[in-house]
Amino acid sequence: MSEDPNEQTIDDFEAAAFQEFDSQADNAKSSTNSDEINMDVILDVPVTLSMEIGRTQINIRNLLQLNQGSVVELDRFAGEPLDVLVNGTLIAHGEVVVVNDKFGIRLTDVISPSERVKRL
Q1: Contact status, residue 91 vs residue 111, Cβ threshold 8 Å
Q2: Cα–Cα distance between 78 and 54 in angstroms, integer?
Q3: Are 83 and 54 in contact (CB under 8 A)?
Q4: Most exposed among 2, 8, 74, 106, judged by the fewest C-beta atoms under 10 Å?
Q5: CA 86, CA 82: separation in Å to the nearest integer?
Q6: What residues contact 87, with CB distance under 8 A and at least 6 apart?
């Protein structure tokens, strides 16, 4: 054994003391906290809402040939509902409407939160 003055042995340490937790008390506290969630914290967070009428894939050669009047065929049929996305996540389907000379969307089907989680 070396005689190093900085060397420590097991006897030099104390056992850590841990606080006992009551699982029933914790469950009661967590359910109370979830009931009292302050939604004001997230209500002003900006998100991007977008509507998608369809998609397609083309190669760069065809992309460079596009000009005014070109038609790009999409993967949707006419009259099929649009996708409504929030930050890129599908949340609903809808149809285009005109309101005060501006385009809008009428939601026809809202995806449930559990369905949104399944799609991730």
Answers
A1: yes
A2: 10
A3: no
A4: 2
A5: 13
A6: 47, 48
Taking only the tens of pLDDT, the chain with its 120 residues reads 556 666 666 666 677 777 776 655 555 555 555 556 777 888 889 999 999 999 999 999 999 999 999 999 999 998 899 999 998 889 999 999 999 999 999 999 999 888 877 776
β-strand partners of 80: none
Three-state SS string over 14-26 comes to CCCCCCCCCHHHH
In the DSSP assignment, the letter for residue 38 is -
**Domains defined along the chain, listed by start:** 10-119 (2.30.330.10)
